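Subject: two folds for Thursday's group meeting

Dear M.,

Sorry for the delay on this. The cluster queue was jammed most of the week, so I only got both jobs back this morning. I'm pasting them in the order they finished. Each block is the input sequence followed by the predicted structure tokens. Could you check whether the formatting survives your parser before we put anything on slides? The first protein is the one we discussed after the seminar.
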Amino acid sequence: MSISTVTAPFRGDHVGSFLRPESIKEARKKYFNNQISSDELTTIENEEIIKLVEKQKQAGLKSVTDGDLRREWWHFDFLESLDGVEEYKADSGIQFKGVETKARAIRVVDTVDFTTHPMIDHYKFLHSIAGDQHVPKFTIPSPNMLLARGNINKDVYNQEEDLLADLTKAYQKAIQAFYDAGCRYLQLDDTSWAGFFSDEGIQKMKDRGQDPDKMRKLFVRAVNDSIAKRPDDMVITMHICRGNFRSTYMTSGDYEAVASAIFGQLNVNGLFLEFDDERSGGFEPLRHVNRDDLFIVLGLITSKTGELENKDRIKQRIEEAASYVPYEQLCLSPQCGFASTEEGNVLTEEEQWAKIRHVVEIAEDVWGK
């Protein structure tokens, strides 16, 4: 198997993040307390990522990631290294159901662009250890996350539309940089769509002074413009999430309100979707899939708890989804990563790997090896 000949996503795939080992947690604490250098931290991260990649291979995955082991957050760490974006300490964290994150946020303070970025080197390391039989996959936040989460200086960009052109050009440069580093499987992670799934989310947009219909169109443009110049042999997928922090969630609701946009207008190669519980609704919105080259990755295995799902029930649900999208376009994965932030979900590493093996085994049963 070589990167140039593999079509992703795979029948049994995964979103990307994994629980941080204790050695990483301890090393990061020491680094922020000035007890070890950045080089020493990187050495420890490298050692753990090598172990992690090997565990992914042993579990039967065909795509391997660095597990986000170098990151505190799935999105802020990437966005704040774009030109014109900076981190700041917010008054409060992001509110999930029953729990709040650390107080951290980002803001746009100058013209947004992409010149150099530490995650290009992060990908290069992953690429160097992936081997010839596995595809290195890298994940970055969707451009929509800056539109949705970034505190925008009105002196720089008066409104979201003004930011769009510079933001998408920055992403085009980033995508090309990852490609030049060898990346052929890139994933955009995106929680912004979940705001459309419920009346509560719609109201939050309105409270921020945003028009939901305008934002929906803006989000489609941001994604499509950002990936418009990707090389033909580069696969770009999107993971659409309702929030994932310490096994809790942020929003509920099915895909129906924006199904025509997500399934009928986005020019990605595949969509990783949450379908692990009743909060996600049924498969009916998949009727809006209007392309025979769009892969739908069913997130039927939860990453939030360690209990393994009944295999027959998962196969039955795949069959239900196949009444809307052909089996040939369907894949299986956990609904999200295991650690969208460094805190991680509430399950053990052993349970995490059992989940991954569960995905691979069910996928092999359904589609073959």
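Second protein, same layout:
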Amino acid sequence: MTTTYVGSIDQGTTGTRFIAFDHSGRIVANAYERHEQIYPEPGWVEHDPVEIWENTQAVVERGLREASIEAERLDALGITNQRETTVVWDADSGRPVHNALVWQDRRTTDRVEELESADKVEWIRGKTGLEADAYFSATKTEWLLDNAEPLKMQSRRDDDLRSRAEAGELLMGTVDAWLIYNLTGNHVTDVTNASRTMLYNIHELAWDDDLLAEFDVPAEMLPEVRPSSDEALYGHTDPEGFLGAAVPVAGALGDQQAALFGQTCFDGGDAKNTYGTGSFYLMNTGTEAVDSDHGLLTTIGFQLSGEPVQYALEGSIFITGAAIEWLEDVDLINNAAQTAELARSVESTDGVYLVPAFTGLGAPHWDGRARGTIVGMTRGTRKEHIVRAALESIAYQTRDVAEAMEADSGIETTSLRVDGGAVKNSFLCQLQSDVLGIEIARPQVDETTALGAAYAAGLAVGYWGSVDELRDNWQIDREFAPEMPAATADRRYGRWGDAVERSLDWAREE
């Protein structure tokens, strides 16, 4: 009998990875490719969608080739993606009208402030569970329709993008929809990604006409919204295409919901934190959408075929792993692996705090004009102190969210499941345990975002029979328990709040 696998395309902020998993959740193929980060102006962040699609094909082909796995042995493909990043493309040619606007992009901050001035924040939150913020896709789509260079089309005399969008000639979507379109020819997204657009009503489970009118986004350009694990399938890859096989594309989740799924957080109260470019703390709240009074987002966690959606509370932290990349950019470290050694070489930051608000602050502060700040430096400050302060900022921002999460949910967290590239750093995991005062559980398979997408696709085609089967796959690599006295952790965390105050509302025009 031929052994088969499930493939996962993990399209992230800095690169694209393909992983194939076997029935036990073990990685059998793995390939990765970075893509260019484009910064046209301060606070603007773009990606080339064509480069992303080309890299996706390359990593799938290379991953399978190096593992000697034929495409026909993939029972399904799942997709996980950077969520709010927005692409608008021509339906006929498949060519994007502009670079993708990345979730980190702040160019629409002025538009968000218009919404705030018009007292529309609560109205938006009531429909979408989201803060009014440039983070989400609504203002990005609006900006693209207003500002993207029009594609010349022989079939039309005018180049007005909105007119073409209303005619169904332009399509929009988050990166999952862009990849599904290129893989299958179908314009589809899943409920988790739809819930991040600020255009989707998470209670009615439909695109919201009032929000579409507010942002002047034609309904004709929106993708069909489907379950995260879809037995009806999103489509098949083209047997004449790059894979040379008709592989079912059957699952998709935004990256943080995929990590929630991969960490088998299937029950209310289960929580995980993913440490990537940013960090995203999600708690499953079951079939109830819990409103937040503490700056968190109410979002859709996942949906299985024929079942109601599961909701989640989310704390979105914009910059964590990217703070480590910044240390490299300014030559304080040579590589990320150095951070633990340098941080351990000093007993503390010696009073230095780094607030990595490079693209504003997310939960629970939601200040798009906050900017990165280092405070508390003296003549005796060394790079070791700054490196340690960068790591501590990751732990402190997580505590900001954890405290908000407990206040909103009424659930005391006693253990947190963690994943993402940064959790390979055991110093950071121990630090996180100390700052939170709870146990940290690191799983054996740390690529849980890709694993979650694979699980969703595999469930849809019967590769796995139930979520209970997936729970049996989850294994702990290591647990970390608090070692720092709680009074010390509380005192240092209190000073963190003082540092955050100094970063707020900084980016103002002179």
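Two things I noticed about the second structure. The chain has 16 helices and 23 strands. The longest strand covers residues 27-34.

Cheers,
T.
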